[in-house]
Amino acid sequence: MIRRFTYPERVVHWVVGLSFLFLLLTGLAFSHPRLYWLTTVVGGGPIARILHPWVGVLFALSFVAMFLLWVRDMRVDAQDRAWLRAIRHYAVHDKANVPPAGKYNAGQKMFFWTMTALGVVYVATGIPMWFPAGVFGLGPFYGEIVNVSRMLHYLATVGGGLFLIVHVYLGTVAYPGTIGAMLHGSVTPAWAKHHHPRWHEEQSGPS
User: Fold this and answer.
1) Which of 30, 49, 80, 201 could form a disulfide with 76 if both were Cys (CB 3.0 to 4.6 A apart)?
2) Contact 3, 189 (CB under 8 A)
3) CATH classification of 2-204, choosing from 3.40.50.1220, 3.40.50.360, 3.40.1190.20, 1.20.950.20?
4) CA–CA distance from 180 to each of 17, 108, 172 (Å)?
5) For the chain, what is the largest distance between any 2 Cα atoms, rounded to a whole number of angstroms?
6) Side-chain half-sphere of 101: how many Cα atoms within 13 Å?
7) Class of residue 78 by CB neighbours under 10 A (exposed 0-12, middle 13-18, buried 19+)
8) Going by C-beta distance under 8 Å and a sequence separation of 6 or more, which residues neighbour residue 97?
9) What is the C-alpha R_g of the chain?
10) Are 16 and 198 in contact (CB under 8 A)?
């Protein structure tokens, strides 16, 4: 077995993922009356409204930790750009026409940077919504700031939710064995060689 993720990396990943899922469900519940039934998962609307911003704090702190853990590995290089140009082949599992990936392929790196940008939007727009009566001494313009924040917050939530669905699909159905790395921390040499040949070579030496 080849070690892919450390224990702290796995813990941080799951804290980010589960807190985001909670925020996604409760946020959708607040967005439309027909979705309000989702709050029953956490004990009802009042409890959900209390927990939502505090779980948001947990999400923000754990996301910062994840960013610091992985930012060095997420730099996009020339080989990543070549991988992106061949993404249509990756989508249909035409491995022969896809440049060999390192520890993370360019798609995973794009997901990381997209979710980072959305994470900034969540925090920046969530704070005014948490204190709708006014804060920071912004006076009469604060109501407009809250309204714009609410719209951007919901749009980012929809985008993040769609990315989460794709992320889970790729890690489970599309590429079996991938989720095991985040559960147990290790992958088989065969999995590493098939999905991340450059990284496999770095770990095991040329075959």
Assistant:
1) 80
2) no
3) 1.20.950.20
4) 15, 16, 9
5) 67
6) 25
7) exposed
8) 86, 89
9) 20
10) no
**Can you tell me which residue has the tokens 């929809």?**
158
- Model pLDDT, residue 30: 87
Model confidence, pTM: 0.85
Q: At 60, list the tokens.
A: 């923000």
Which tens digit of pLDDT belongs to each residue from 109-156? 999 999 999 999 999 998 888 876 655 555 556 778 888 888 999 999
Q: Where are the domains of the chain?
A: 2-204
Residue type at 206?
A: P
**Cα separation of 84 and 111, whole Å?**
12
Residue 3: helix, strand or coil by DSSP?
Answer: strand
Alpha carbon separation from 42 to 30, 38, 45, 91, 99 (Å, rounded): 13, 8, 8, 37, 45
